[in-house]
Design a protein that fits this description.
Oligomer: heterodimer
Order of helices and strands of chain B: EEEEEEEEEEEE
Helix content of chain A: under 10%
Structural class of chain A: mainly beta
Number of strands of chain A: 11
Number of strands of chain B: 12
Radius of gyration of chain B: 14 Å
Chain lengths: 114, 113
C-alpha cells in the first residue's frame, strides 16, 4: 500500500516565477492538506481540500492556491514567488470522517527560491 | 488563538538515558494532542496521540499523558537509542467545527552511543 507521494523532490525557482507541486494521497484517503515548513520551524497549515473544494485555509496570501482532482490527488500552486517562500512543502492525507485525527504525511518537496 | 510551545533543542543524550521533551498548549475546549517525529530528509510520522484528558498515548517505548489541568503533553521514553535521533513535534487539533492544526517548532534530539 503506497503512502502519500509528492513530486518533485526538489525544485529551484527564481523570484517572481510560479511553481506547481503535486501530491497523491494514501490509498483510501479523500482529504488532502498542504503545509509549509520553514527551516527550523514546525509545519504551518496552508489549506485543505475535500471533494475538490477548499474546506479550510490558514493564514496564507492568495498567491497560494490549490486544486484537487477527482482521483483525490492535489496540486499546490504558488505565484509570484518570494525569497521567503523557500521551505519544505508537505502534503498530508486522511479520510474526511477522521479529519481531526491522524494526518499521514508525504516526504515533502523542497522549494528553493533564488 | 491556539498555540503549542515546546522546549528548545537540541536535546543531547547518551544511549539508554531517560528522555523528556516538554510540550504545553493553549486552546479552547478539548483539543486532540499529537506527537510527530521527523527523521532527516523525511516527512512527519505520527508517534502517538491522545484525544481526551488523562489519556496516555504510547508507541515504540514513548509515552505522553494529556494533562488538562496543566495544559501539557510531555513526551517521555525510559531508554533512548541512537535510532531515536530525530526532530519531535508536538501538535494539537482543535475541538469544534474548524480543523486547522497547530504544530510546535520542534525539538531536535541527538542520541550518542
Amino acid at each position: 500500500d503506497a503512502g502519500v507521494t509528492q513530486s518533485p523532490t526538489h525544485l529551484i525557482k527564481t523570484r517572481g516565477q510560479q511553481v506547481t507541486l503535486r501530491c497523491s494521497p494514501k490509498s483510501g484517503h479523500d482529504t488532502v492538506s498542504w503545509y509549509q515548513q520553514a527551516l527550523g520551524q514546525g509545519p504551518q497549515f496552508i489549506f485543505q481540500y475535500y471533494e475538490e473544494e477548499e474546506r479550510q485555509r490558514g493564514n496564507f496570501p492568495d498567491r497560494f492556491s490549490g486544486h484537487q482532482f477527482p482521483n483525490y490527488s492535489s496540486e499546490l500552486n504558488v505565484n509570484a514567488l518570494l525569497l521567503g517562500d523557500s521551505a519544505l512543502y508537505l502534503c498530508a492525507s486522511t479520510p474526511w470522517d477522521r479529519v481531526k485525527d491522524t494526518q499521514y504525511f508525504g516526504p515533502g518537496t523542497r522549494l528553493t527560491v533564488l | 488563538g491556539n498555540s503549542v510551545t515546546q522546549m528548545e533543542g537540541p536535546v543531547t543524550l547518551s544511549e539508554e538515558a531517560f528522555l523528556t521533551i516538554n510540550c504545553t498548549y493553549t486552546a479552547t475546549g478539548y483539543p486532540s494532542l499529537f506527537w510527530y517525529v521527523q527523521y532527516p530528509g523525511e516527512g512527519l510520522q505520527l508517534l502517538l496521540k491522545a484525544t481526551k484528558a488523562d489519556d496516555k498515548g504510547s508507541n515504540k517505548g514513548f509515552e505522553a499523558t494529556y494533562r488538562k489541568e496543566t495544559t501539557s503533553f510531555h513526551l517521555e521514553k525510559g531508554s533512548v537509542q541512537v535510532s531515536d535521533s530525530a526532530v519531535y513535534f508536538c501538535a494539537l487539533s482543535p475541538s469544534g467545527g474548524s480543523y486547522i492544526p497547530t504544530f510546535g517548532r520542534g525539538t531536535s534530539l541527538i542520541v550518542h552511543p
